[in-house]
């Protein structure tokens, strides 16, 4: 049976590179994205990952169709700058929802499937701002939300130690995207990493 992978945020700059890599490795790709633009040959479903009931229904559907789903790459997220004075409750809530809840709801829904099938692997995206205060001081809401993602991975690894379930966190440097080049026109892009390299 063909191996399969769930990729959220599949239409983003990083997501599309990850999708292509798994297609090259002959995986069946379940992609969560707003639309299917640029995602030929994969099953694309728009799911609001901030809504737990929607996530649970989607995971139940794809695991019922495909018992060989063993990997989930959770790329949905958002970014916001702001120091302590600039970061209000609304900013915190937005980053918490986009970066933490979207990952947590998928993890929680997928765990029973992984347990029943002898294991599975979650891949999450972190940031230096999640564990380095110097980097977080101007990215407060973003850094705090991503710190929860990092800790979630540790909890998964503790829980899944004897169940074949594990989590990994990738902490990339600045990703070379059109949006980042526009936002930082004077940056040294030689130090940036590509979505393809991360994939």
Structure description:
The chain is an alpha/beta fold. Helix content is 44%, strand content 16%. The chain contains 7 helices and 6 strands; from the N terminus they run βαββαβαβααβαα. The longest helix is centred in the middle third of the chain and has 28 residues, at 89-116. It starts with a strand and ends with a helix.
Mean pLDDT: 92
Please give the alpha-carbon distance between the first and last residues.
23 Å
Main structural class: alpha/beta
- Quantity of strands, as a count: 6
Low-confidence stretches: none
3D shape? globular
Please compute the radius of gyration using only Cα atoms: 17 Å
Adjacency order of strands in the biggest sheet: 3-2-1-4-5-6
Number of helices: 7
What is the H/E string?
A: EHEEHEHEHHEHH
Share in helix: 40-55%
For the biggest sheet, the summary is:
6 strands, parallel
Which terms would index this structure?
199 residues; alpha/beta; 44% helix; globular
What can be said about this structure in brief?
The protein contains seven helices and six strands.
Question: What is the element layout, followed by pairings?
Answer:
Layout: E1 4-8, H1 13-24, E2 28-32, E3 43-45, H2 52-65, E4 69-74, H3 89-116, E5 120-125, H4 133-136, H5 140-159, E6 165-170, H6 178-183, H7 195-198
Parallel strand pairs: 1-2, 1-4, 2-3, 4-5, 5-6
């Amino acid at each position: 049976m063909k191996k399969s992978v769930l990729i959220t945020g599949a239409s983003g700059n990083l997501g599309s590179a990850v999708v292509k890599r798994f297609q090259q490795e002959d995986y069946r790709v379940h992609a969560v994205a707003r639309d299917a633009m640029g995602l030929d040959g994969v099953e694309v479903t728009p799911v609001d990952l901030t809504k737990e009931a929607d996530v649970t229904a989607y995971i139940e559907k794809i695991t019922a169709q495909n018992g060989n789903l063993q990997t989930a790459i959770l790329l949905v997220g958002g970014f916001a700058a702001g120091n302590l004075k600039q970061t209000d409750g609304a900013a915190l809530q937005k980053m918490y929802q986009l970066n933490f809840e979207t990952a947590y709801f998928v993890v929680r829904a997928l765990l029973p499937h992984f347990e029943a099938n002898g294991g599975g692997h979650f891949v999450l995206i972190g940031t230096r701002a999640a564990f380095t205060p110097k980097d977080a001081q101007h990215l407060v809401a973003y850094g705090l939300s991503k710190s929860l993602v990092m800790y979630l991975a540790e909890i998964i690894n503790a829980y899944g130690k004897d169940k074949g379930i594990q989590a990994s966190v990738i902490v990339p440097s600045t990703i070379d995207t059109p949006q980042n080049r526009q936002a930082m026109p004077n940056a040294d892009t030689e130090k940036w990493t590509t979505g393809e390299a991360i994939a």
